[in-house]
Description:
Residues 270-297 are annotated as: Disordered. There is one protein chain. The strands form 2 sheets. Strands 4, 5, 6, 7, 8, 9 and 10 form a 7-stranded mixed β-sheet that branches. This protein has a 3-stranded mixed β-sheet with strand order 1-2-3, sandwiched between helices. A hairpin with a 6-residue loop joins β4 (173-180) and β5. It has helices at residues 2-15, 27-33, 44-60, 72-82, 89-102, 113-139, 150-168, 205-221, 255-262, and strands at residues 19-23, 65-69, 105-107, 173-180, 187-195, 201-203, 225-232, 238-246, 249-252, 278-280. Helices cover 45% and strands 19% of the residues. It is globular and about 60 Å long. It has 9 helices and 10 strands. The chain is of the alpha+beta class. The longest helix has 27 residues, at 113-139.
Amino acid sequence: MAHTDHQSMRRVLRREIAGTIGLLTDEHDFRAMRRYRSFTFDDHATYLRQIETVLRTRAAQGTHTTLALFDPEDYAAYCAQTGLDPEAPASRTRFTAELAATGPTIPYDGRPLATLVPALVDEAVRQATWEYATTLLSRLGPCPTCGEDIGKAAFTRASDLLVRILDTAPPGDRHLVCSVSGPPDTLVSVLHGNQDSHGDTRLDEAEALEFTSVLALGLATRSPGGLVLRTTAPGTTDRVYGWRLRAGALEPLTAAEVFDAYCTDAESGDLISPESGVDYSEPPDLGDGSPAAGHRH
């Protein structure tokens, strides 16, 4: 009887242990892992099917699982730094545990991997963009004239602008895109805001942090870029408007400029047919101090 009770308790405990699976999302990374003899898979499609079976089994048992992006180059560097044998499965387990603590992850929620893999990659890109933007902001240092931390001042200003943009937007769900041109790279950040029944906009905290950081970088470095907002609400036409990011300020785009931007292919420059049911317009006033506010030295 005591033996049975112990088995039952262990089954309960196993259900309460959360786990993380490091996922090789593309063929290139999968081929890189095949250089290890202990990695026994030889086909990426088969590997993904087996992963999905494991995820479904764990979910059916009531076990929570998160997915992390497994990068073979980072794994090799981790093993070299820690002195672990990259051939040992236990080393991959330790690396995956490290990913769960520090890297981008998403929970397995029953959706197929074909849907979850792009979401995981997007999460990884979002975290990398945020880390890159915050690193550049921190390197700006203090203003030589007044001593104010330029990066922190720009982040505060960007946060204020984002609040103003959301507060002045028409009712509905919001989709914002902010782009800041390099050098060395162009950063693009996307923010989704869903409006609840009380009219409050719900933002993903990680998305909002990344978006604000990218906008702050454009403001602080006076880099060219842009910010576009699209609102969607039942029974009404979508409304699209935006601003040009120039010389550390947001300058309103005219309706014609927004129309041209949406109806021109960014890569080829060819014209694209305008969407039906979309109103291209000028943005609302963000307030007297918004374009010129902030650190100006």
